Structure prediction request, 75 residues.
Amino acid sequence: MKVSNFDQELAELRVEEEKQAAIASARMALSGVGQADCEECGRPIGEARRAAMPSATRCFSCQEAFETERRRVAR
Prediction:
């Protein structure tokens, strides 16, 4: 299957965006500043999740759905 230049550029852009988001999250975690609300659904991120992963930007449910979708697309 041939991948077009557009598809390749789009994939590279997504990777770069994810990398930049990870860097921003890591900086927040290092500074001790977390995100209180889920970026997907807007509900509060649970205290246990924030304590375990201060850089979390999604609640547990949304993160689980995100990872499931990511695995599905990667196949």
About this structure: The radius of gyration is 15 Å. The helical segments are 5-31, 47-52, 60-74. The longest helix spans residues 5-31. Residues 5-74 form a domain with the Four Helix Bundle (Hemerythrin (Met), subunit A) fold (CATH 1.20.120.910).
